[in-house]
Design goal:
Length: 183
């Protein structure tokens, strides 16, 4: 991917990690598609000097630091009280009191030009399952990537309101952009 060999520390001070949720159901017009930012996360990216070795990634996210930053759609704009209520509901669904962190640890990586596929294990809500990240180089020191997390695979029940007429789509999108600082 053109990123120099070495070990890079990444986190909320070097990048952005967001979750995008989407509404569905017959009352979807009443709800909001959300952008939720992880404000407390850290990790390490290792790029080996030997091209025969694989890069590795490990990331830890403090789920208590998830913050609703934007809500689009809906009958009315989100206010501070709405955002607070959504964050409380989200913490309950993620079982943050019992499992305050989510972690990702890579197990394999395939690099092709300016993009890569990183396979790994995501631990969320006390369960570990495989996850694949799609990563691409934006410039000499910045990478961006995305994945989709199907909540029910980790035992998380997607939000449902208005007697089931408003639902959160089971799959949420996770996106990140990271500047790999000089070592």
């Amino acid at each position: 991917m053109g990123v120099g060999a070495g070990e890079y520390r990444v986190g909320s001070d070097t990048g952005r990690l967001v979750v995008r949720t989407y509404r569905q159901g017959v009352a979807s017009k009443a709800g909001h598609d959300l952008v939720i930012e992880a404000t407390e996360w850290e990790g390490r990216v290792t790029v080996p000097a030997d091209a025969c070795e694989q890069p590795s990634v490990s990331v830890r996210v403090n789920l208590r630091g998830l913050t609703v930053v934007e809500g689009t759609g809906g009958i009315r704009p989100l206010n501070a009280g709405d955002k607070h209520q959504i964050q409380q509901t989200m913490r309950e669904a993620l079982q943050v009191d019992r499992h305050p962190q989510a972690t990702f640890t890579s197990t394999a990586a395939g690099v092709q030009g300016d993009s890569a596929t990183v396979e790994g294990e995501l631990t969320l809500a006390g369960q570990m399952h495989p996850l694949r990240l799609r990563v691409r180089r934006q410039d000499d020191a910045t990478v961006a990537g995305a994945t989709s997390v199907v909540q029910s695979q980790w035992g998380i029940k997607p939000y449902s309101g208005l007697f089931g007429a408003l639902k959160l789509r089971d799959a949420v999108d996770v996106e990140f952009t990271v500047a790999l600082p000089a070592r």
